[in-house]
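Dear support,

Our group has been running a series of protein-ligand predictions, and this particular one with nicotinamide-adenine-dinucleotide is the one our PI (initials K.S.) wants archived with full inputs and outputs. We had some confusion internally about which version of the output was final, so please treat the block below as the authoritative record. The input we submitted was:
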Amino acid sequence: MVTSITPYRDELGVSDGRMLIGGQWSAAASGATWTHVHPATGEQVAAFPVAGPADVDRAVRAARRAFDEGPWPRMRAGERGKILRAIADLARAHGEELVKVQALDNSVPLSFAEIYVTSGEFVADVFEHHAGWTDKLAGETLPPFQGGDHLVFTLREPVGVVGAVIPWNAPLMLLAQKVAPALAAGCTIVLKPSEYATFAVLRLAGLMMEAGLPEGVFNVVTGPGDPTGDALVNHPMVDKLSFTGSRAVGEKIMAAAAHGCKRVSLELGGKSPAVVFADADVGTAAATTMGTVTLGLSGQVCVAQTRALVHREALEEFLATSQMIASMVSYGNPFDPEVTSAPLINPRQLDRVLGLITRGQEEGATLVFGGTREEGDLATGNFVAPALFTDVSNEMAIAREEIFGPVLSVISFDDEDEALRVANDTQYGLGATVWTSDIRRAMRMTKAIRAGTIGINGYQVEPNSPFGGFRSSGMGREGGRAAVEGYTELKTVLLPLTDEMM
Ligand code: NAD
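Confirmed final output from the archive:
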């Protein structure tokens, strides 16, 4: 039996939640709630409101008022920066508590929450980084094209009310990546977390209010896609939709944005390749690649390197190291320091992953190890033994679809051209890694691979660098200047300087 998470829930004071609308903690008008079931133990954690259209309308109107009439977009830029820094300080001070609440949501093991991107430190750094942008968002002065004595310049203004929707896998980090740049730009926000990861978001929202955000600037509506998300993305008073999640839902968000021409940015899924050449440090390449699909979130990571393209000469070492990493995986209660990896988030995802593993076998790939549901003591959770396929062709479903589970598909290649062709033969384009000791080859591949982020002999996400996808992996970027500018409109100002031009 996986030990109970209930004592941790009680110690953390997580109980039935409320959502944040116009600075007040509210229940749903209908009284509807959703009870969160822990993915490792099957225990009920607590309930939170399911916001219906009336609740979402109240939240959007609060954000609208805060934008149209409130102090936030009008405040001195430096003052906004101070509040963002105060959020960073509180997130840092409460980092440990936040990641523990997150473990009640999605069962990311605490051992993994010490890794930078899933830590409270990362959340704090994202807010701190964007605090610095509040007084640096500038337009430009342009030479008058037709001559004459007039001034032409641009202003960057906040886009308005943002409707943000995030998934369950890294709720704290993903909240920060959306909300910090939007706040820095002077926007107001209604955020909908995933129904599978709500409590850490509510805890962080409380800290954000404590930091001094004026009421209505940041609102949280809780509940599933239908009805809550749907009501938010179709609300006519929202100016921009900012979505992170699956491609299927992303397409719906884009269609919703078409009504009224809302601005939209999308951070979607991936099928990222790790391209491993024979001259690489193959052990490190294998450990890192297999690590992205097994440790921590068990492959439930948008930028997991789920297609390993391995030079035939490196295959044996790659497989041996991958098997060694898989054998290190330990499942169980996320608060147990020995536990390395999370269960799948819900039974639906468990069925989907097992279905794709069966399909891989039916299509002729060789399942070298893993791929079955963990039974016995682990039967309370949605655990799947880490799996590795060889003899994979890039046409198979396991090479084309985002599995979002602990499954690595290994495709062998003979030369660089073949590796590049396979790497780019995907509808996605979120990330890639290239493993080689030849810098010229690394740069050739980096320039030719169609993906938003390329790691050379390693991979990490930084709070100040742009992150996002080519093709079906999304549009727009989070992190750094591109993210903040994505929450602005550009206004051109024409100022005649002579009487004749007036
Ligand atoms: P999902 O698309 O099922 O859900 C994401 C969010 O959308 C949830 O909050 C959900 O309630 C909401 N939603 C669902 N239907 C909706 C609708 N019709 N209208 C409005 N909102 C709706 O994704 P998930 O299972 O929570 O997360 C996994 C996916 O997220 C994967 O595809 C992964 O690659 C992607 N992801 C991408 C990034 C990135 O930065 N590119 C980061 C993390 C996760």
